[in-house]
Design a protein that fits this description.
The chain has about 950 residues and is α/β, with parallel strands linked by helices. Helix content is about 40%, strand content about 15%.
């Protein structure tokens, strides 16, 4: 029989199953599932892929766009062909329905993962269809690997071994099964119209096709999609495919994946009432529009002082890039959860200001469940009754299809993500996304579904904010990611207030290398942007465009101000002086002197502490040692650090952002004691600031939050006419900088030591911002050889710092995916078997999540000492309880809880939920909550005011 006959009723055997629901006893034919995925892939080509992605795939296949679409549908549909194998035996009920002819012809087949079976079985079928398949980089081998990678990991195809036709026929059934695989292959090819044979399959095209196939398979695997079709099946393959093609647009639309174009709106409307762009923004709008129109996408580096409007500049650059039509959407990457939450509010407001009908904005970080954009039902530990659930390891089942409950999403909030996009690894697919750096860096690691992440990244403008905050380990990973983004034609915007020129050049050249301009061809280029200013490198020809000098000078003139950065030597209590040495000013004494006027007469102040222990000590000292109005500080003194329960930390951060914003109702008196949580990307303003010694770029970031807004009226008691940042330099009794032991693991010791040395040698005169910023940054964070030579101890520290940097870069490079031009086989992208939970985007031990709980006298576990929030110990938590549990957790170093005992383990019913299984309980006595819990030599307890308090025996 031919393919036309096979498409008709009774033409081909439909008894092999692809999906089975145990509860409903419903069986879904495998061929129907393959056709569903092919149909959905076609709609994803039309509605999800951007023009640039479609062109890249077509170029990578050597085919016209229309034929490339058909071929992608065909490849996506073939993904589960390997289920025509011993896979069919794994469920008794659907196996009993398989035709007698097939059941009688199993021979000595062997069970293997069906994705590997798909890869092996299709190789010789592709060869029969005219695809070259004799080498590992031939089109046939790469297409086979795409099928093998549809469960997230590319496999090695052994052309002359396991994938050889004779071996495949021995392990995957007899002639009847071989014939059926051939007929399914031919029918899919016929119905999708994929008759053209590609002249090539590039690695870049293969990665994108794999990503599309993964999405299409997930959409088609939703229980609410296939179960009704299983219960009322079509009579023929052709009839089913026609219906699948008709239904596919609605499925993609419901998922929230359809790309939209934001309508043009005035600058003032788009950016929250700003009257006009500043000089730097105006230069980007004027110059970048012209150069992108002529040369296409590339990489833009924007450097400006904090508060200079870099966020608006990035959004305008994204608008210009996306206007070309090759990309659509924005991915905004930031270093911390606090900065990500702040950027989410900004991007959501930006998108909403364009009044789209519906444009999901997703938030992706490890605590996204704390944000109101994510609904309870996405936390549910579903128990799908479906055999062959798409990703069995996932905590997020498919039985509800990701559909929000009725009334769950307020219709007036057009930026709230739809249910399907709230899945843990799917939220990054939304057209507008805010995420931590780590979420994107995972695409450059050999983790499962890295192809899906790469597809998600490259279809829009990627904004990498606070680039200077990346340590060498992460910066190396970013360089490799930029290489791939350059290869995929993805425009990138890098933002920083304190970026050394050599790092800027390194990142730009990595992007250009991916775009086809090797490092040897770009070594002569000066890729350092002006400060303040910007530089644009076009992917097409590596040409550079810079801000017009007049615009840079005008912008600097408008934002020029003077500020004091004063170094005060202090005695830190962890570094005792020798006996009989004169008393010196203690750290807490200096802080008290600076904050006392605020407590007495009003104003807003921030005290930045190097460690959480220092922050807790400082807060307690200010609370008890100052004369606060009304007998106590109350809500006028706040403590914010990372080891607060999530719900408290999120609420405090939002409160501080609101109170100290340019438009918020400014309190008469507020002192915030914090750590590095408030360092970056937060639009806040304080009158007084004290900081522990930190790397110079960090101090400059903090200085940007001091007198940030011109319209704020400063307290009358402030005598200075310019802002003043007090930097506390911990010194020994001889006046030399001595870092406390607890500070040394935080960063390379050289950076704070070099900062102290540079500031001590600098003449006592105000800084001129932004003029002095780049010189300061280069002196400490750039080429610091000259500074290191001024002192023997500093020189030794610099040598260790350089060695540490090289070590971090080496460790990072060990786990990266190879450059695209060094990838011959797709399996090269997964040479290492890294799980996303184990992959390191940051150097150091991964923290554990601690859940403070209280044990009541009757033995119950509760979230509060009063016993009003009992925990379900003998049943699975509800979705609302899961959210509450997660919101009460906090991170701790893994070493602190390494000595955990039985009572530190979560209840047995929780262990089947991926987000709860790894939690560590901190059991506290409800009658005496201040008594610490012991983990070996580590003692922990949760204090109502201080957060988690740690002591060590």
């Amino acid at each position: 029989m031919g393919v036309r006959e096979d498409a008709r009723r009774g033409g081909i055997d439909l008894t092999p199953w692809g999906k089975f629901d145990r509860g409903e006893r419903a069986v879904y034919p495998l061929l129907f599932h393959l056709l569903d995925v092919a149909a959905l892939a076609g709609v994803l080509w039309d509605r999800y892929l951007t023009r640039g992605q479609r062109r890249l795939i077509a170029a990578g296949l050597g085919l016209p766009l229309a034929e490339s679409r058909c071929l992608m549908m065909f490849i996506a549909g073939l993904h589960d062909l390997g289920k025509l194998s011993a896979f069919q035996e794994q469920e008794a009920h659907p196996w009993a329905r398989v035709s007698d002819t097939l059941r009688a012809d199993t021979r000595n087949w062997r069970r293997m993962p069906h994705e590997r079976a798909s890869m092996h079985s299709v190789l010789h079928l592709l060869a029969e269809a005219g695809y070259p398949a004799d080498t590992s980089d031939s089109p046939g081998a790469l297409v086979a690997q795409i099928l093998g990678g549809h469960h997230g990991r590319f496999l090695q195809v052994d052309i002359d071994g396991a994938a050889k036709a004779s071996r495949v026929n021995l392990t995957l059934g007899g002639p009847a099964w071989q014939d059926l695989r051939r007929r399914y292959f031919a029918l899919l090819r016929h119905l999708t119209g994929a008759t053209a044979v590609p002249s090539d399959v590039s690695v870049r095209a293969a990665v994108l096709i794999t990503g599309v196939g993964i999405i299409a398979d997930r959409l088609a695997s939703q229980r609410h999609y296939w179960l009704p079709r299983a219960q009322a099946p079509a009579f023929a393959a052709g009839e089913h495919y026609a219906q699948a093609v008709r239904d596919a647009p609605a499925v993609v639309e419901e998922s929230g994946l359809t790309r939209i174009t934001l309508p043009e709106v005035p600058f003032t409307q788009a950016h929250g009432g700003l009257e006009r762009p500043n000089d730097l923004q105006a230069s980007v709008i004027r110059q970048l529009t012209a150069v992108v129109g002529e040369k296409g996408p590339g990489i833009l580096v924007v450097t400006d002082a904090t508060g200079g409007g870099k966020s608006v500049t990035a959004l305008e650059a994204a608008r210009i890039f996306n206007a070309s039509g090759d990309t659509a959407g924005i991915l905004w990457l930031l270093p911390t959860i606090a900065t990500t939450d702040a950027a989410y509010d900004l991007l959501e407001a930006y998108v909403a200001a364009h009044h789209p009908e519906h444009a999901p904005v997703s938030l992706v970080h490890s605590h996204a469940y704390d944000n109101a954009a994510y609904s309870d039902h996405r936390l549910a530990a579903h128990e799908p009754s479906t055999s062959d659930a798409y990703w069995p390891e996932s905590d997020d089942g498919d039985d509800d299809g990701g559909r929000p409950a009725a009334g769950e999403r307020p219709e007036e909030r057009v930026t709230v993500p739809d249910g399907w996009l709230r899945g843990w690894d799917r939220a990054v697919l939304a057209q507008f996304t805010v995420a931590t750096h780590d979420q994107a860096l995972m695409a450059a690691l050999p983790v499962r579904f890295s192809a899906l992440r790469m597809l998600a990244l490259c279809g829009r403008t990627v904004i990498v904010d606070e680039v200077h905050a990346l340590p060498p380990f992460m910066r190396q990973t970013l360089s490799r990611l930029l290489h791939w983004l350059g290869a995929l034609g993805c425009p990138v915007v890098l933002l920083s207030a304190t970026l050394p020129g050599d790092i800027s050049s390194q990142l730009v050249r990595s992007y250009l290398d991916g775009a086809g301009h090797p490092h040897s061809a770009t070594a002569h280029l000066d890729c350092r942007p002006a400060y303040p200013g910007w530089l644009y490198a076009a992917a097409s020809d590596a040409s550079l465009t810079r801000i017009a000098p007049a615009a840079a000078e005008a912008h600097a003139d408008r934002h020029r101000r003077r500020a004091d950065l004063r170094l005060h030597p202090v005695h830190h209590p962890s570094c005792p002086d020798p006996q009989d040495t004169p008393a010196r000013e203690a750290r807490l004494e200096r802080i008290t002197k600076e904050i006392a006027p605020v407590a007495r007469s009003g104003g807003c102040a921030a005290v930045y502490c190097a460690t959480m222990a220092d922050a807790q000590t400082t807060y307690a000292h200010l609370r008890d040692g100052l004369d606060w109005p009304d007998g106590g500080p109350g809500e006028q003194l706040l403590l914010l650090h990372a080891r607060l329960p999530g719900y408290r930390r999120e609420a405090l951060t939002r409160r501080i952002r609101t109170a100290l914003s340019s438009t918020g109702e400014r309190p008469g008196r507020l002192v915030v004691v914090t750590t590095s949580l408030l360092d970056m990307s937060l639009d806040i303003d304080v009158d007084v600031m004290v900081s522990d010694l930190a790397p110079l770029h960090t101090l400059l970031q903090r200085l940007g939050r001091l007198w940030r807004f011109d319209h704020i009226k400063r307290p009358a008691w402030l005598s200075s006419d310019r802002p003043r940042l007090i930097v506390l330099d911990p010194t020994d009794h001889r006046g030399r900088t001595l870092l406390p032991p607890a500070w040394r693991p935080l960063d390379s010791p050289f950076l704070p030591l070099a900062t102290a040395a540079y500031l001590a040698r600098r003449p006592e005169q105000p800084l001129t911002l932004p003029d002095d910023v780049q010189q300061l940054v280069e002196a400490v964070h750039g080429d610091a050889d000259a500074l290191a030579r001024t002192d023997a101890a500093l020189r030794r520290s610099h040598t260790l710092h350089q060695a540490r940097t090289r070590t971090e870069e080496h460790h990072s490079a060990l786990h990266l995916v190879p450059p695209w031009h060094d990838t011959l086989s797709l399996s090269d992208l997964h040479r290492q078997n890294l799980h996303p939970r184990e992959a390191a985007t940051r150097l150091g031990a991964m923290p554990r999540r601690l859940l403070p709980v209280y044990r009541t006298p009757d033995g119950r576990l509760t979230l509060d000492a009063a016993g009003t929030q009992p925990l379900p110990e003998h049943r699975k938590p509800t979705t609302a309880q899961i959210r509450t549990i997660l919101q009460h957790t906090l991170p701790v170093p893994a070493a602190w809880v390494a000595g955990r005992a039985r009572d530190h383990h979560v209840p047995a019913p929780w262990r089947s939920h991926a987000l709860l299984a790894d939690l560590v309980l901190l059991p506290q006595d409800a009658g005496d909550p201040t008594r610490p819990a012991r983990f070996g030599r580590h003692c922990l307890h949760l204090d109502d005011a201080l957060g988690l308090v740690y002591t060590e025996d």
